[in-house]
Specification:
The protein is α+β, with helices and mostly antiparallel strands and 258 residues long. Helices cover 26% and strands 29% of the residues. The protein has six helices and twelve strands. It has a seven-stranded mixed beta sheet with strand order 1-2-3-7-6-5-4, sandwiched between helices. Strands 11-10-9-8-12 form a five-stranded antiparallel beta sheet, with no helix packed on it. The structure holds biotin (BTN). Biotin is lined by residues 28-30, 52, 55-58, 61, 63, 72-74, 116, 126-128, 144-146. Residues 28-30, 52, 55-58, 61, 63, 72-74, 116, 126-128, 144-146 line the site of biotin.
């Protein structure tokens, strides 16, 4: 099990991880973090688990992770952002995760819209952002992060699309050191969000995204749209050029035609 003592030892963060909850098994770290946030836990609180019985994914999906192999955690933020700027937190998360994973492995990681981290063309990390507002003002955000660190195999239907650091690099990674690196990178980038410096985060996300200028297909529910990925709009929506003009998407799954 992840040791709380080891995580806190030498962490040296300003905000992130000052309060840390570690569980051997939990329904969902996001669900727990949401309850803690509703009862006033401070910004930077982190909830970590070795295993989730009801891990949540994007678009109502489940997130399944081998017990004790990966990193499953949620970070609570209380940003002073306007409601329409809430999407920046997804890009903030993707950037700090990519930076931390690069530090850990020495290899480069790509960002994929809307909130995946890719390694050698396969997904190794998913982000689930759950925001709470009160009267149009931000109350709190829960950023849920699942990183496939040491998972050895995936279900057949995921094998083509998902991977772990273990599968790509051929050795296991220390979960505590990896978590510390992630908490440090989030803590350092958080100051940019707090100062309203979001352009540099978007620039870094864009430079890590290999999708622009390429033919893509977006699937959202029953809808399927193909075109060329052009750019992100100010709210983080994906703008695509299609046969009938430009369309902007705020949710969905993208595949890039090779
Ligand atoms: C996705 O669908 O790609 C997002 C997956 C997010 C999974 C993480 S695991 C830790 C946190 N707790 C949850 O229940 N979900 C997120």
């Amino acid at each position: 099990m992840i040791s709380k003592q080891r995580v806190l030892k030498g962490l040296k963060t300003q905000v992130v991880g000052k309060k840390l909850f570690v569980f051997e098994s939990i329904d969902s770290t996001n669900a727990c973090a949401k309850t803690l946030a509703e009862t006033g836990t401070p910004e930077g609180t982190v909830v970590v688990a070795d295993f989730q019985t009801s891990g949540r994914g994007r678009l109502g999906r489940t997130w399944i992770s081998e017990p004790g192999a990966n990193l499953l955690f949620s970070l609570i933020l209380r940003p002073t952002l306007k409601k329409e700027s809430a999407g920046i937190l997804t890009f903030f998360s993707a950037v700090f995760i990519a930076r931390a994973l690069e530090r850990i492995t020495g290899h480069s990681f790509e960002c994929k819209w809307p909130n995946d981290i890719m390694l050698n063309g396969k997904k190794c990390c998913g982000i689930l952002l759950e925001n709470s507002f009160q009267h149009e003002k931000f109350d709190f955000a829960v950023i849920g992060i699942g990183i496939n660190l040491n998972q050895t195999s995936f279900a057949e239907d995921l094998n083509e699309r998902a991977t772990s650091l273990f599968k790509e690099f051929g050795h296991t990674f220390d979960r505590v050191s990896a978590l510390q690196e992630l908490l440090r990178e989030s803590d350092s980038l958080l100051s940019n969000v707090q100062r309203g410096e979001v352009t540099s985060i978007m620039d870094e996300w864009n430079s890590r995204c290999a999708m622009f200028g390429k033919p893509v297909t977006i699937v959202h529910g029953e809808d399927r749209t193909s075109g060329t990925a052009l750019r992100l709009d100010a709210e983080g929506g994906l703008v695509i050029s299609t046969a009938s003009g430009e369309s902007t998407f705020y949710a969905g799954d993208v595949t890039i035609a090779q």
